[in-house]
Amino acid sequence: MNVADSSVFCRLGRVATRLGTPATGATGMHMDTIRKPLARCIGALIACVAAPAFAQAIPAADFAKRSEAWGATLSPTGEYAALEVPVKEGLETQLQIVKLDGSGETKVLRFRSQQHVSDVVWTADDRVVVSPARLQPLKEAPVSYGELMTSDINGKGQDTLFGYIPDSGNLRGKRKDTGWSYVAEVLDAEPGMALVDFTCWDCGEDPDSVIFKVDTRTGSRTEIERVDGRARFEFDRTGEGRFRTTWNDEDEPILHYRPTKGSAWTPLPKSIAGRLISGTRFDADNNVVYALVTDAGEPAQAYRIDMAAGTRTKLAGREDVEMAGFMLEGHDGSPYAVVSFADKPSVQYIKPQSEWAQLHAGLMKSFPGMMVTINGVSRDNDRVMFRTWSDRDAGSVYIYDRAAKKVQKLMDYRPWLPAAKMAPMKPIAFTARDGAKVYGFYTTPAGPGPHPLVVLPHGGPYLVDDTWGFDEEVQFLASRGYAVLQVNYRGSSGRGETYEQAGWKGWGTKIQDDITDAVKWTIDQKMTDPNRICMFGASFGGYSALVQPVLNPGMYKCAIGYVGVYDLPLMRKTDNRNGQSDATERFFDRTLGTDLAALAKVSPAQRAGDVKVPVFLVHGKDDKTADFNQFKVMEAALKAAGNPAQVMLADGEGHGFVKPENRAELYRRMEAFLAKYIGPGAK
User: Fold this and answer.
1) Handedness of CA 82, 83, 84, 88 (dihedral sign)
2) From residue 241, how far is each of 264, 292, 306, 610 by CA, in Å?
3) Fewest C-beta atoms under 10 Å: which of 41, 168, 256, 570?
4) Triad 315, 318, 324: Cα angle to 5°
5) Is there a single domain that holds both residue 95 and residue 185?
6) Which parts of 353-405 are beta strand (E)?
7) Is the pLDDT of residue 396 over 90?
8) How many domains are contained in the chain?
9) CA–CA separation, 634 vs 648, rounded Å?
């Protein structure tokens, strides 16, 4: 089983009482409920009665609360589920091992005090591997920092498999490794064994990429592969590395293939694997491979590749949408569908007659308006863990017993935010001023339009995109009566390399033009009140929020910058990416540029006199990404220009706010700020 095949996502408020398939209708499955190991038990599933939308505003604090769990994974036998549960007001993550026999038996694993975990992988029925993680405020769940720990399900036998050197420079972990690691493959035929991809930071001028075979019970390891420089491996069903991608000094990918076990690596023809291949899944004979392929800069498409014949067949794909991955038949089967997320999630069944395709289609039918992702299947294929989620619903996790045809709800992510009171999120596409097609999302509050608008550009700006799904920030704004516009401007991911690279060096130019054109399009469509528009964004979005009033005088009534970057030459000097790998530096040069004079012209801190709207600046004093000096120079410049900003600062917070009380206070103050300038009584 390739652990990368697991899908993620969110929560449910509405419940279907029967599951069916397009071919047969109801299958006789029924919904059931298991005991929940979190603070609150989930009662029996009942039909929801929709209340009048937005009849009473949900408190800001409810939107600031984090999910009841970060994620859930199914054990190989299907006997247990592992839940990543935040405790101590989100300052620590427990791993709760829940027995799925209806008893409610739960075992709690703690790895370190005030420590988060992520990327939970079962390597055997009684053994888990976790990655310690940091809670990044602008992320939904904690993010791995490349260390691996292991434990049995009773919390015993805990050990560090791979360590690291943290920012402090102090060694942690028994292994004293210097690098980044993750579980690349679990070896089902050898319980407890896994392949670990390790990037060695002290192996020379550039990092080495190493594949280890690791016994997760004892910690012993055997080196399998080593490449000088960056590399990514794709494995067949036996755990043999069959594809290898490396990168040259210009960061162009170089593809190699190993025809048989132990044979030499040979160049992979572009006629088969294009410019880049990823997401591979080998068939049972290990000679036919399903893969996501991009030939040039287009979005990745799904192919079936016959390596022996040297041919490939396109299975699915759209010219404007990146294919995200495959859905697999059971625990270790072949793909039956291809999924994409760039617009509203889409599933293309490449084997529509497969029993797994029919199962998934039946689940989709049973949860109308929801996306269903299967994120775990027991080794015997009898138990299935799946998630439901939508734009209005943060999601739920269920267990389906195929033999008994029973569905049990395991957990809800945010049950205190009912779907009936949330707002719909609509994919949009428009033509920019230069004729290019640009994409985004528009969330519409209750009531007739045109609506007051909050423009919410995402951070990055590169390697990031907005997607259809539940966003508590968007829903908070919509609950207060504001439409929300999210623009996947050129530079955003999800649409292919050409689309992404079209935004390079366009922080204050091309990207901002796309945002401006999106706002104008919503006005032309009678969706937006042109006299009631405000900008709000975090990180790069904070930069956009302050530079847009400079570039478009009169379009906006206010601006909110949250942990933003406001002086681009200063960022080039202080950004924490400087001093890292040569590849990182090259990427930074390509995407932002090195012309400091040009960057100064599109820096709001150096154009503060042109910011003619009220400003609300929000920053964490410990921000190491958008250095706290960014806030200082922006605030000082606005004050000097005669337009002093409203300010919210937080001690002990970094690139965004972690503490729920700080998040709630931000939402309350933002609500008052928006009401004053674009609310119902605003002039």
Assistant:
1) negative
2) 11, 17, 17, 56
3) 168
4) 75
5) yes
6) 371-377, 383-389, 396-401
7) yes
8) 2
9) 13
Q: What is the pLDDT of residue 44?
A: 27
Which of 159-163, 327-331, 513-517 has the least mean pLDDT? Answer: 159-163
pTM for the whole structure: 0.88
Q: Where does a domain end: 346, 380, 407?
A: 407
Taking only the tens place, the pLDDT of each residue in 302-339 is 999 999 899 999 999 988 999 999 999 999 899 999 99
Amino acid (one-letter) located at 249: D
pLDDT > 90: percent of the chain:
68
Report the chain's C-alpha Rg in angstroms.
25
Q: Residue 68 belongs to a domain with what CATH number?
A: 2.130.10.120
On whether residue 360 sits in a domain, the answer given is yes
Starting at the earlier edge strand, list the strands of the sheet with 71-74. Answer: 71-74, 80-87, 92-99, 106-109
Q: Which of 407, 435, 468 corresponds to the end of one domain?
A: 407
* Strands 266-267 and 92-99, sheet pairing: unpaired
Classify strands 179-186 and 193-200 as parallel, antiparallel or unpaired. Answer: antiparallel
* 259 assigned to some structural domain: yes
Q: Determine what percent of the chain falls in helix, strand and coil, rounding each to the nearest 5.
A: 20, 35, 45
Per-residue tokens: 435: 């004729």
Q: Let me know if residue 553 belongs to a domain.
A: yes
Whether residue 402 sits in one domain with residue 429 = no
Give the Cα-Cα-Cα angle 667, 568, 493 (nearest 5 degrees). 70
